[in-house]
Amino acid sequence: MNQPLLELRNVDTFYGPIHILQKVNLHVNKGEFVALLGGNACGKSTTLKTALGLVIPKSGEVFFNGIDVTNMKVAHRIKHGLAVVPENRRLFGPLSVMENLQLGAYTNTNKQKNKENYSRVFDLFPRVAERRNQMAGTLSGGEQQMVAVARALMSNPELLLMDEPSMGLAPKLVEQSFEMISELHAGGVSMLVVEQNANMALKVADRGYVLQTGRIVLEGPAKELSEDEELRRAYLGR
After folding, report:
1. 183 contacts: CB under 8 Å, gap ≥ 6
2. Which backbone phi and psi does 83 adopt, to 5 degrees?
3. Is 142 in a helix, a strand, or coil?
């Protein structure tokens, strides 16, 4: 079996004295869309931050492409193929859309590759191309989500981390957001997506994990998680 693209092994993390993640084991294979589900304050975003390097585990290891990156800095992980679409998009509002995209491409010094990346994201998101000279802070929520994803793709990531892509969006825009995510996945982008909207995430994911108070309590194929009545009542709020 091929080695996972991302793997967390027996990860324990703390914020001060508070034990946040407890013996978390999680992996994402190349080409997979993995959904990480759970309620508020269960440790989902901390798991993503641990994968990215914003949080260093007290014990356990993080591997990316077979390399132990547990103690490596965020910049190293991004340079070697991780990218993130943060919660609430976190665009630079006073900058133009194009300037935000340029910031996403800062690790890539190949001018020809950057040119190809601009063409790619503009093909994927025609609205982003239309708004390229507009200040990012003046865009609608759905447009900002597109720009945030486009910015992340500018670094040619091997794995895209997404934190609550549906947060703050109207129901119609949530559907559009997951259609966009599904299209990216169909195009070969590997993803780990943290999401509270379990119903929507499991419709398009390959596999899922459910976190409860810092522990993985469920995992399996997305279809099985979605269809199991007892699991849905207990953990997915349905």
Report:
1. 124
2. -145, 155
3. helix
Q: Which of 26-30, 92-96, 137-141 has the lowest mean pLDDT?
A: 92-96
Rounded to whole angstroms, how far apart are CA atoms 65 and 67?
6
- DSSP lists the bridge partners of residue 59 as 12
Q: What is the pLDDT of residues 17-42, one digit of tens each?
A: 999 999 999 999 999 999 998 877 78
Q: What is the pLDDT of residue 168?
A: 66
Helix (H) or strand (E) segment spanning residue 91:
none
Sheet holding 18-28, edge to edge: 18-28, 6-15, 59-64, 67-68
> If pLDDT is split at 50, 70 and 90, which confidence band does 170 have?
low
Residue 168 sits at the vertex; the CA angle it makes with 165 and 171, to the nearest 5 degrees, is 85
Q: Report the chain's C-alpha Rg in angstroms.
A: 17
